[in-house]
Amino acid sequence: MSRTIFCQRLKKEAEGLDFQLYPGEVGKRIYDNISKEAWGEWQKKQTMLINEKKLNMMNPEHRQLLEQEMVAYLFEDAEVKIEGYTPPSHPGSAE
């Protein structure tokens, strides 16, 4: 059975995650406040970040960096900056 939450990233009601995918307090916040859709978007960004910055998930500093980026992206409306990658511009946006 799916659950609906108010997604803080998308600023709308959306389908919540089926279970907590990330450990600890941050994971609980994500489970309570982030939709499947927004989590899926983050997973793509995360992969690009790991590849671009050559992050090693065995390295605690790298994991911490990734967690900071994740929290900023999901909860603070930040965009993930990936060098050499330009997100497609949205038509009608003033840029």
From TrEMBL:
The secretion signal range is: none
Q: Which Pfam family, an example, fits this chain?
A: Iron_traffic
| InterPro entries, per the entry | Fe_traffick_prot_YggX (IPR007457), Fe_traffick_prot_YggX_sf (IPR036766)
Keyword line: Iron
User: Briefly, what is this protein's role?
Assistant: Could be a mediator in iron transactions between iron acquisition and iron-requiring processes, such as synthesis and/or repair of Fe-S clusters in biosynthetic enzymes.
- NCBIfam families linked to this entry: PRK05408.1 (NF003817)
Report the sequence similarity comment from the record. Belongs to the Fe(2+)-trafficking protein family.
Q: What is this protein called?
A: Probable Fe(2+)-trafficking protein
